[in-house]
Amino acid sequence: MHDVLEILGEVYMNNTLTWWTTALTITSALVFIMLERLRPYTKGQRLFREGFVNDFILYTIVQSYVLGLIIFGVIYAIDDFTTIERFDGIRSLPVWLQVVLFIVVHDFYIYWFHRLQHRNMRLWRTHEAHHSTNDVDWLSGSRSHSLEILINQTVEFAPIVLLASPETAVVKGCIDAIWGMWIHANIDVRSGVLQYVINGPEMHRWHHAADDDAHNKNFSTKLAIWDWMFGTAFLPKQRKPKGYGLGDTFPKTYVGQHLHAFRPLRHDDTASNNELRS
Ligand SMILES: [Zn+2]
Ligand SMILES: [Zn+2]
User: Within 89-232, where are the H helices?
Assistant: First the structure.
């Protein structure tokens, strides 16, 4: 019954693929940190900026580990109640094709869910912590409320674990981690026509911008095509964002950022960060 989950566990514990993907993720982080020093987009941002320990220790290491176990448990339960894993159609494809397939399908989902999080008051509460970093850099992507991670990573990984080869989950997880660092990195990138297809810091840093006209734009994660196709692309050439974040009243601690999502809804509450933009 739990063949796929057992094999996935073995892949994570023993397989050299796990070590390679971990090494690649750490190396990528170091390369992004170096490029941020060599070619910064926003000059003067420090590596050890406000919230560094919060984002690195609590969100990146502790939260990822704990939520990984919980999500694995949820997928185990889904597996228990269904026979989805017996469908072998996707598992028989080459791993690279499975990875491409899940990247495109998941990216399309996350574009629309992300858009909805900026429109719906309650869903915005799960996403606002991600927008609260005053400095956007390689580490900023890790700051996501655990509810947001629980929803999105269960939706993302349940089909992969149950339908794809175990290696696909490991490779996709590694690509997610590296891409998350890349799109937030404080690197001055000019990718030309590629920006119409591949998403990067050039557009995603505008998604975090405090400028009014950047509001509700650039929802894409990996493929920029969704923003260009669905009319939410924003890429001014002659200026840079006036700032990032949700203002200094937003809680600074991990616990504070989590509890903040459960404050009472006010009658004048708005989804997204309308009220906080000047
Ligand atoms: Zn957002
Ligand atoms: Zn972001």
Answer: 95-117, 121-127, 146-163, 166-184, 201-207, 225-229
Q: Is the pLDDT confidence value at 135 over 60?
A: yes
Separation of CA 106 and ligand 2 centre (Å): 16
- Ligand 1 centre to CA of 96 (Å) is 29
Handedness of CA 113, 107, 34, 41 (dihedral sign): negative
The C-alpha atoms of residue 112 and residue 172 are separated, in whole angstroms, by: 20
Nearest to 230 by CA among 106, 128, 123, 115: 115
Ligand closest to CA 218: 1
134: Cα within 13 Å, side-chain hemisphere: 14
State the average pLDDT over residues 26-45.
Answer: 97
- pLDDT tens digits, one per residue of 52-82: 999 999 999 999 999 999 998 998 888 888 8
Distance CA 70, CA 154 (A): 9
Ligand number, closest to the Cα atom of 138: 2
Model confidence at 49, pLDDT cuts 50, 70, 90, reads very high
Ligand 1 centroid from CA 12, angstroms? 31
What is the distance in A from the centroid of ligand 1 to the CA of 219? 6
CA–CA dist 202, 214 (Å, integer):
13
| Mean per-residue pLDDT, 105-124 | 96
How many other CB atoms are found less than 10 A from the CB of residue 132? 22
Is residue 133 within 8 Å of residue 261, measured between CB atoms? no
- The Å distance, Cα 112 to ligand 2 centre, comes to 15
Residue 18: pLDDT above 90? no
Compute the distance from residue 142 Cα to the ligand 2 centre, in Å: 9
